[in-house]
User: Fold these one by one.
Assistant:
Number 1:
Amino acid sequence: MSDEVKRHVKEVFSKNKQAYVDSTTHKKQSDLDGMIEWLKPGPSHKALDIATGGGHVAKALSSHCGTVFATDLTKDMLQNTARHLNSQQNIEYVVADAEQLPFLDESFDLVTCRIAPHHFPSPHDFIEEVARVLKDQGRFLMIDNVAPEDDELDEFYNHFEKMRDYSHVRALKVSEWEKLFRTHQLSVKKHLTRKKAMPFSDWVCRTLEDEADQKAVEELFKQAPTGAKSHFCIQEENSRVQSFTIDEYMVVVEKHSS
């Protein structure tokens, strides 16, 4: 199961590599500024950005840290990102699986992962690896889409994400992430959840080329139960879905070995 999921991820991201460099969602400056503010990276810090995608976080970190390692499962994506960021001299690029990182224990002061963990088959293995490669008192910052705590809304959310992108595995609930952090001696220092507005057309076309597939997702939105329409703020105009919102979680945790 896990290998098949990872093959899907590579297919989707190889095909859409430039879309993730250009994506307005992924290069949102206020997000990147917020990450720097929360982490306070410095020149003595060695940082790791997991599932770097278009490299936006790695680039932001590289202006503050001594060295940044940008990793991604998808070589095509990473190659494209390396070309795009060729002026940043202190970024190293490594093809790596988030659930089996090729680094020694306690290698990094800072670890980041943004808008990616919902593609990982085993969030438990991912957090275990983050905790392993972090130095004691090192910090991990994650931003990802999360499912609502309500089971029906959780199911609706993960269903439409999977329809639109077959490499989507599952967005966890905040309560599930918190449990994983506790299990791996990572204490939450700061967190927030917020609504993220998504332009429907840009979002659906980034991974679906077939018009019939795009329409199927739109129909699901249009026929959504009242509770889902309300929670996800589904906006329609002239019988077309214009936009919706999803829940996003931003969190910083600190490692404490003892």
Number 2:
Amino acid sequence: MEITKDYSSSKIRKKIFSMILPITIESVLQMIVGFVSMAMIGRISAIAVGALGLSMRITQIVWALFKGVTTGASVFVAQAHGAQNYKKLRQVVQQTLLSTIILVILLQIIIFWKAPVLILNLFHPKEDLLQSAVTYLRVVSWGLPFMAIMLVVAGVLQGTGNAMTPMLITLFMNIVNASLSFVFIFGKLGMPAMGIRGAALATIIAQFMGAMVGLYVLFSRGGILNSLFNKKLFNLDIRQIGDIYRVGMPTAFESIFWQIAALIITNVILSFGEIPLAAHQLGLQAESISYMPAAGFGIAATTFVGQALGAKDKKLGRAYLKETLKGAIIVTLVCASLLIFFPQLVMKILTDDMEVIKLGAKYLIIMGIVQLPQNVSGVLNGALRGAGYTRVPMIVAGIGLWGVRIPLSLLFTYYFHMNIIAIWLVMGADLIVRFFLSFTLYKTRAIFERDVLLEEYN
């Protein structure tokens, strides 16, 4: 996708829309399948929902690590693409893919064998919840390598401006996941009912098929790595990998901060009982109605700002950011209204437990109110990443999580003995604080006023 020199708002909006639409559709597809899967698990038992939640806290740390790595790759890809340095682009993709596969296999082995120790030491759950969580985590760990491959594929393709292909892969994968989940969880088409184990099995089969399609796209005729389908593919370039990880690791740490904070918050909420834990877990899933459609604007900001700066066109970068912010605000206002005005209706999609529905609805109202600052921060942070300032969003996340969310949650729970609503209010306050920090740091970095290229592409 070539960088246009037409600065008119209509042309820029059209180009942003051409990327945002597939990303938004992809996010909505993930949200829908997440809803469907959670609704099926929610009808097994509250224990099953809790087991899924505990296991996801661990697998999401792995996701966060490789999401950060692929963000680093995506920044290099965007700037190389903008500079039309396609040799550099291929090198970045090859080294990212190879290093990711090696690292994720090592992590999968650790998680599979240490699943009981990890869950017991992190959460101290009751025996029935522990057994269900270990069962799910061990099965779903086999899908981690395929998940990492899909993150690489999506990141590098989006870095070139190609959001349609990742969207189609996600569509295919989610259809497989939803279909197999129904069959495996409830025992349809002659299959035995496997419950939560069936949900995990459906997930890894879908991830495997999605990863295979993604690799085909990279190595097929016209694909980014087509010319490297030989011994060169397995040559590690430690310097190149170091550069990618140097840029990507702040984003990885930012996401890991989130996941570690989620571990602590989950432990706090677990102290309130299984119903609050289920309400929190289902509320997180329902909240995706707002933040997943808007998440694409942050990705678009990274891609288009990175490409514009790679092409040394800062005026175009400013124009892209302005239009991306407008789009994110409009989408957020529409989607957040569903959480604020129809919270119980949304929760009823996920469970038929009225106690969980009533409690979870309060979570959705609180989170709905703070969606706008959260999603605007996402766009500003995306622009900073595209310019190579990947450490700034990490710093913001660290201050919000460890300066607001975690200490206040622990204080309100164990010292003042407040209920779970107080924890959710603290989470909302954290997002507002981070919005002001993101805006301030974005202004101070003045990314369109100085040379912020990661390197020169000659």
